[in-house]
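Long-time lurker, first post. I've been practising inverse folding by hand and with some scripts of my own, and I keep getting stuck on stretches where the structure tokens seem ambiguous. Below is the full token string for one chain I'm working on. Before anyone asks, I'm not after the true native sequence, just a reasonable design that respects the backbone. If someone could post their per-position residues I'd love to compare against what I wrote down in my notebook.
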């Protein structure tokens, strides 16, 4: 390769400092060394980089192209060096975090801001997984950390920390046939009506949908935003986080009904695979533990744990 990073660094220094002499001082070299480097590069490339006909050497059009593209190469090399240095220190190239379907993004924002302020070079990647899809993503190594995973069937080989219970409420449109039925609603009553549920994203594990009974007509959707719109349209009943539908309940657009069992709380956790020891992963685990302990991640109510607000933008 005829273009070296050292030669590009010399060219960049000359352009930034305005002269060979000033660039040599900045690079702690003698001017003749810079002149030799530029002349050798011109010979190797078969072009003129500097126009020396005037009082001061100026970049030729070809030199301008070489400078601009060369700076991009220098930046890429510097980023690579920093990434490798951080990797030696134990920081991962990428940390993939899967959020459960009911996990709000809002509590993650200050953590992301604080993490970027560290300058680790680790790239963050977030995805959404539903029910067993969170565990599937972890075991299938599509994510290093899952937040908001269900606790009904924790796989082996995982570190788990509880987040609390998500307060869920059975909701339906005000004009739904069950809206005025005596409470608590029985399983038989619910089975006779369509349930709207978010589809499990598990690829390898057995999927599930919350609240579905055998033989019940079920409408599966891609996320809670779609589920809410279908509930408002009166197309079925479904469990929703209380915090996300309280405004619709207060306005009378949705109705909350007690059903058997009388309370429906979903215990959730965050988890990561055993044997993982990356510094970015450990940083997020530590911060999440602090947030949960202080009550910042989920807010305690008389009805259990609830996120405020719950993201429906899935």
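-- Answer (accepted) --
I ran through it position by position. Result:
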């Amino acid at each position: 390769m005829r273009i070296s990073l050292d030669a590009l660094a010399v060219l960049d220094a000359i352009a930034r400092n305005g002269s060979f002499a000033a660039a040599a001082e900045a690079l702690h070299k003698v001017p003749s060394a810079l002149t030799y480097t530029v002349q050798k590069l011109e010979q190797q490339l078969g072009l003129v980089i500097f126009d020396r006909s005037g009082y001061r050497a100026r970049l030729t059009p070809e030199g301008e192209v070489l400078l601009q593209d060369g700076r991009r190469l220098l930046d890429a090399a510097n980023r690579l060096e920093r990434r490798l240095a951080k990797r030696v220190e134990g920081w991962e190239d990428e940390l993939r975090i899967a959020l459960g379907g009911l996990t709000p993004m809002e509590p993650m924002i200050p953590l992301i801001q604080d993490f970027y302020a560290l300058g680790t070079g680790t790239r963050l990647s977030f995805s959404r997984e539903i029910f067993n899809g969170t565990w599937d993503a972890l075991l299938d190594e599509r994510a290093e950390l899952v937040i908001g995973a269900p606790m009904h069937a924790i796989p082996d080989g995982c570190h788990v920390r509880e987040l609390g219970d998500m307060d869920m409420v059975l909701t339906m449109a005000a004009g739904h046939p069950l809206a005025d039925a005596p409470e608590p609603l029985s399983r038989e009553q619910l089975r006779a009506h369509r349930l709207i549920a978010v589809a499990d994203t598990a690829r390898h594990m057995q999927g599930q949908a919350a609240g579905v009974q055998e033989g019940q007509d079920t409408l599966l959707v891609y996320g809670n935003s779609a589920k809410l719109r279908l509930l408002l349209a009166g197309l079925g009943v479904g469990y929703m986080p209380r915090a996300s539908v309280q405004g619709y309940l207060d306005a009378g657009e949705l109705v909350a009904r007690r059903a058997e069992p009388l309370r429906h709380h979903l215990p959730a956790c965050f988890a990561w695979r055993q044997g993982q020891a990356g510094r970015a992963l450990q940083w997020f685990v530590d911060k999440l533990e602090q947030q949960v302990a202080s009550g910042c991640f989920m807010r305690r109510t008389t009805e259990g744990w609830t996120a405020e607000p719950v993201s429906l933008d899935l």
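A couple of notes from the structure itself: The longest strand covers residues 158-173. DSSP finds ten helices and 13 strands in the chain. Happy to go over any region you disagree with.
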